[in-house]
Amino acid sequence: xxxxxxxxxxxxLHKDFRLAGGVVKVLCGLNFTVQRGxxxxxxxxxxxxxxxxxxxxxxxxxxxxxxxxxxxxxxATLSARxxxxxxxxxxxxxxxxxxxxxxxxxxxxxALPALHWGEARDDAFAKARQWLERFGLGERLExxxxxLSGGEQQRVAIARALINDPDVILADEPTGNxxxxxxxxxxxxxxxxxxxxxxxxVMVTHDQALAARADAVVSLMKQ
Length: 223
Prior knowledge:
Elements: E1 6-19, E2 22-35, E3 39-43, H1 50-57, E4 65-70, E5 73-74, H2 80-90, E6 91-95, H3 106-116, H4 121-134, H5 150-162, E7 168-172, H6 180-197, E8 200-204, H7 208-211, E9 216-219
Helix pairs in contact: 3-4, 3-5, 5-6
């Protein structure tokens, strides 16, 4: 598939959650398409379902009804094993909270997914080093998270998300915990990945100025 062709097709997507007080409808009849190589921003007030939608796009959850189609495949029809394999090959997740292991170095945190999936240690650490050096952290490989700034920790988290070279990056408020300068650095990294690696970026953001830079915007309303 080439840039500009449909990657995701979201069709009449509904997601409900059953709580003690009844059913909470979060997503109701959502329809949109994400083109390969596109930057799509997901915007809306708190509670409108942005993170829920990101989880559905990543196969971390299943819809109540409707479909999330990835290159024509309905993710809800895949077994848990096939979904796990798909995420390993195709999708990298970046979160607002960095989710780094405090006892591990930057190098070890970035290499962890590749090691988890059985890649040879030397190969996994070589890949981690390449990404961290690309992101300006070549001198910080042995530093633990508490020894890194917020922007540096997020760069480690992005390196970890990219260690298996996914073609889709799903980012949940990746600059939300950062100051303006660090946020600009992270967005520059993500923009470069799209430009040079033909990666598709779907990003949750509350920053309207940031959303305005995206190729497409999906606006969600609180139900």
